[in-house]
Amino acid sequence: MRTLSTRAPPDNLMTAVPPTSFAQTPTTTTPFARGMAFTAYFLLLGALPSLGTGAVLGLVIAYARRDGASPLIRSHHRFQIRIFWISVALIVAALALGASAWIDAWRQPFVPHHFHQIPRAPDAQTIAYHPDEPAAFYSWDYRSPGRSPHPRAVLESYAAMATILVAGLWSIVTPLWGMLRLASGRPIGHSAS
Q: Residue 140: pLDDT above 70?
């Protein structure tokens, strides 16, 4: 019969076994990790209807789950973080362009339309009554000179609208593309590390 020894093992056995760490990266993808990556993509996709709230929640999931994920899921979480920050940069650029266009448009002084400054035209489209001269009617056409915006303001407003369009397309197309890659089990980028 064998007796159990209560002596401690030698020191060389204690150091030969590596300590267990919870921070080790798993090599396989669990269904829960994959489901969380899909959830983050769905939240990013719902950024427009939720006015950004879904995108912020998706970003929180991506940051929280990134370090402990498998290489495949980690690449998708990095892509989700990239989607969010590029969308924010595009929206900030569009807001800056819009604000600059608004400032440039209002920098030009306002010229009011008075009836005496309105050119009378035989092919008038509108007839107006002037209160100072009740017996006289004045007519003008819509081609009358008025306040026109500064050309730079027009260019900046078109650039702002184009940037908003690109941001909207980016926030719809990239999460869909990421979901397709995740559904097929492929990482985002050149390597999954």
A: no
